[in-house]
Amino acid sequence: EREVKKGLPQVPKCCPSGQNLTTTVEDGNVKTVCSRSSLTFQPYFFQANESFMFSYETNVYETLVGNPCKYDRYKLEPYIHSEDEFYLLVNGSLFVPYARPYLLGTKDYCMETFYNESVPAGLTLPVVCFTTPMEETKTTSTLIVYATGLLISVPFLLATAFVYLFITELRDTHGKALACHTVCLALAFTCLAATQLAGHAFPAVACTIMAYLIQFSFVSCFFWLNVMCFDIFLNVRRYINASVTRRSMRRRFAWYCVYAVLFPILLLIVTITMDLSPAVPSTYLKPNFGVKGCWFKTDQAALPYFYGPVALILFSNLCIFFFTSRAIATHYDKLKDVT
Question: Which Pfam family, an example, fits this chain (predicted)?
Answer without folding.
Answer: 7tm_2
